[in-house]
Design goal:
single chain; about 190 residues; alpha+beta; Glycoprotein, Type 4 Pilin; 4-stranded antiparallel beta sheet; 8 strands; about 20% strand
């Protein structure tokens, strides 16, 4: 059973994620010092899938900032805190959609973490709840994921979400009708703006 993370655990994960990125930028040892000083609770030690997203601040008139990097894994055998440390630096420097983060960007970027629950098969698209469920699509080598917060951020309906997911996987727009769909939930938390 996946346990909920309290505010201290969430804060620790956000600090570890930022320290992971900072260590790559400056080569310091602050990350391991921070790990040593962090109270590694059972919730932080539990193996869980996660995504780390880096977001630029919203521009005037925007509700959410633009994506600057996002890397995740649906399942992890590592403790959640180690998974987040690994994913943070990958999101900053190895997301193929973006150039590597540079040092002067880091203070402006906000880190968002999605700690995942295990997936379960989606019985019917009618069972999908926008805002609660993330969706994983797979068909042969084609695969794509949208976190639970993606559809509400874009104002998508269930059908639009599934169509966009199929396109993301490299399938035709209606390709979602003949795939395996799994759903999951996530505890989503982020650094405050400003």
């Amino acid at each position: 059973m996946t346990s909920s993370l309290n505010q201290d655990e969430q804060r620790s994960l956000l600090l570890l994620a930022r320290a992971s990125i900072q260590q790559v930028l400056d080569g310091g040892q602050a990350l391991e010092t921070l790990v040593d000083e962090t109270q590694l609770t059972p919730g932080l030690r539990e193996p869980r899938g996660a995504f780390v997203s880096l977001k630029q601040p919203p521009k005037e008139g925007q509700r959410t900032g633009s994506l600057r990097g996002c890397i995740g894994c649906m399942v992890s055998r590592k403790a959640l805190y180690r998974t987040v440390i690994d994913l943070a630096s990958k999101a900053a420097f190895h997301d193929p959609r973006f150039p590597p983060l540079v040092a002067d960007e880091l203070p402006r970027v906000r880190i968002e973490i999605s700690a995942l629950t295990p997936t379960r098969p989606l019985g019917s698209p009618d069972d999908l709840v926008i805002g609660r469920d993330g969706v994983h699509l797979s068909k042969g080598a084609a695969s794509a994921v949208f976190l639970p917060q993606v559809a509400p951020e874009h104002g998508w309906t269930v059908e639009v979400l599934l169509r966009e997911l199929a396109l993301k996987a490299g399938l035709p727009r209606d390709g979602w009708r003949e795939v395996d769909l799994d759903v999951f939930t996530a505890e989503v938390f982020r650094e405050p703006d400003g």
